[in-house]
Amino acid sequence: MKKQVLVFALILATLTMYAQKPKTIEGKTKNLKGITSYNLEFDYSDVQIPKYDSEEEFLEDKMAKREEKEAGTGEKFKKSWFADRENRYEPKFKESFDKRFDEGEFNVSKDNTEAKYTIKIHTTKLYAGYNVGIVRRNAEIDAVLTIYETENPSTILWSGKYSKVQGAGAMGFDYDSGYRISECYAKLAKEFAKMLKKVSK
């Protein structure tokens, strides 16, 4: 039994490590050395939702199920689905990033017009997870982060993909899907900040 638990723990640790390390698509991380100010851009285009052919199909399904139970709740869900991006996910990313740097070593924010470089965070997969009390599953995202010259987007310093970034919080009492997903962005920011710290040394 102990051996089985140990094997499971090792597998879990391996998966976690895999999820935390980005796969470089273009450029080199050393190109980021010395850069301390970034403009933030978030992109949710063509996001994939597991078990659905498109985001539109996902929304239609979820809205219909909610409307069956209570009129008006379907449209309410759709509005919150999109509103959570600007109201929860993006602030959570910045909050998590900033708290990794006590001295304010980096200036990272949306509409940072003074920044020569931009970090584009393209969410390519989004899984909301679930929590029904006795059973729960973490939310999870895949994202491609691309850093380029703000005035010349074709000049890419580095681009990398983060896979299976999971959000967990509230000691398991994360019944709200928006909260669960926002924790994915907190985790993503944490791992990206870790990479920048390593590059800056």
Brief summary of the model shown:
With 201 residues, the chain is of the alpha/beta class. It is built from 4 helices and 8 strands.
Could you please describe the fold and organization of this structure?
The chain is an alpha/beta fold. It has one domain: Rossmann fold. The protein is 42% helix and 29% strand. It has a six-stranded mixed β-sheet with strand order 1-8-7-4-2-3. A hairpin with a 2-residue loop joins β7 and β8. α2 crosses α3. It is elongated. The N terminus is likely disordered.
Key structural traits:
201 residues, alpha/beta, Rossmann fold, six-stranded mixed beta sheet, two-stranded antiparallel ribbon, 4 helices, disordered N terminus
